[in-house]
Structures are given as C-alpha cells and as structure tokens.
Amino acid sequence: MTKAQIRLLQGKLTRLGLYDGAIDGVAGPMTLAALPACFAAMNQLAPPDFARWGKSRRCIAAMQAYALSEAIDAGVIDGLWGPQTDFAIMALAQKVATGQVRQFNDEGPDEIRNPAGFPDETRSQAELVAFYGPAGTADGRIRPPLVRVPLPWKMKLAWAKHQTRSFLWAHEKCAESLVRVLARVDALYAPAQKTDLGLDLFGGDYAPRLMRGADRASLHSWGIAFDFDPARNRLRDNLFEARLGQPDAIPFWEAWEAEGWCSLGRVRNYDFMHVQAAHRAY
After folding, report:
1. Is the four-CA dihedral 117, 120, 121, 126 of positive or negative sign?
2. Contact 16, 38 (CB under 8 A)
3. Helices 55-69 and 29-41: crossing angle, nearest 10°?
4. Span 120-280: which CATH code?
5. What residue ranges of the chain are covered by domains with CATH 3.30.1380?
6. Which residues, 6 or more positions from 195, have their beta carbon under 8 angstroms from its beta carbon?
7. What are the distances in angstroms from CA 27 to CA 39, 62, 77, 138, 269?
8. pLDDT for 13-71, tens place per residue?
9. Which SUPFAM superfamilies does this one have (predicted)?
10. Is there a contact between 264 and 273 (Cβ–Cβ < 8 Å)?
11. What share of the chain is helix, strand, coil (3-state, %, to 5)?
C-alpha cells in the first residue's frame, strides 16, 4: 500500500475515534493497534485469523472493510490485493476526495475480426444471455458451462505469488478459441519474455460479480474474460503507463484479436489487464 492509501486509512480511523496519531502514511504501532476494532465500527466482520496476518495484509483488510462500508464492492475481506481490491481502493479515494465514484467498467467495444461469432454487449446484456446463457451468480445457484482450459505455461496469482494456476476457467463457447490463442502466445514468447511482460501473473478468470462501478454483471461472470498482471496494468493506465501497452506486447494482443477477442486497452486506452470474448455495442 502507498503512503497516500495509509493516510486515507488513518483518516478513517481518526474519524471513528480509534486513532489519535499523525496522519503520516506510516503504518506504525498506533495505526496497527487501531485496526482490530475498526471492522465492528464500520459494521463489517473481521476475518477470523486477522491477528495472525502480517502488517500489510491487515492494513489491506481494513481498507477493504472501509470500501465496503462506503458501498464500494471490494469483494471478500481477505487482505489480498487483487484487481477488485485495486479498483475498490481507487474508488474509495475518489469518493473521499470528491463525494462520488467515477463509473468504470471492464468490457471492450467492437472488433473488426470475429471468426467465432462472439456477441455484442448492449446495456441490457440481452445478446450475451442469448449467446452464452445466464451469467453466473455469487451464491452458486447459476453457473455457466465452464471448461478447464490448460495453460501452456504456469501462472502465479498476482496477489499471492506462492500460489499457481495451471488452467483457466472458460465458458464452453469460447474455450476452443482460448486454446488456440494460448498456443499462439506460447509460441511467440520465451519463458523469460512471458515473465517480463507479466503473462505469468494471473489476474482473474471466472468470477461471478457485478461490473466494476456499474450494476450489470461483469463479463467474468460468464467465464469469457481474463486479466493479466493487474499491478502493472491498472484500470486507468494508458498506453504509455501500462506494461501491456508497450510495443513488445503487440504480438500478444494480435493473437487474441485474430480470434475476435477484444482488448479495451487496445481500442480505448485503458484497462490493459483485460481481454474478453464479447464486443460492446454502446
């Protein structure tokens, strides 16, 4: 976490009456001592093993709780910094500063090539439902027909690099296309190049949730979207800031585009972590 984010947390702890130290962006003993009580003060449940976590993870968990208390979807309070937490804390800082959250989403617009016939996405998402069926739900009552697509190279979880993934969950209607894309990418880049680009850092596959900053289902809820290296490809990073916006990433994106997949980063200059099997029509 950055000093600005720690200051944000310290400000909240101060307003809750749990902290009377300096707002200095340093997670010192007084800041850490205030954390256990902050969950109940924000009407959130503290994780049962919170006291055993390291300093950084405890601070992240408190920020996740803070975001949730402000009606910003930070997901599960687990103290792990994934794409959803990254967005939530960015949105939280924006809300504290301006009183509102700028509306973002993680979906891409139309692409010229579309050999697999991937659908358009309208605001109603009717075309997605017609093509893929209903989106998955967080309670598990609806789960799309998913296929485990083997990865040609092993990936590490971007927020917990000691854990690895050897496959991606994909909707059965885009799984064969995904297999071809991954084979092309594997042939294009040597292992060291994949690491340099961050292609070995898993940022997300199937995840039933709402679109970031909106009230519609994320395309991750169908298993038709994938994220790579979220730390170096933040939601608002442009072509010059995002790692996957650099010239050596062009063959990576072209492998997807040859199959009709869409990168919002390539066509709208933000969210370079994300690629999807659908095309925006609004």
Report:
1. negative
2. yes
3. 30
4. 3.30.1380
5. 120-280
6. none
7. 17, 12, 19, 33, 34
8. 999 999 999 999 999 999 999 999 999 999 999 999 999 999 999 999 999 999 999 99
9. Hedgehog/DD-peptidase
10. no
11. 40, 15, 45
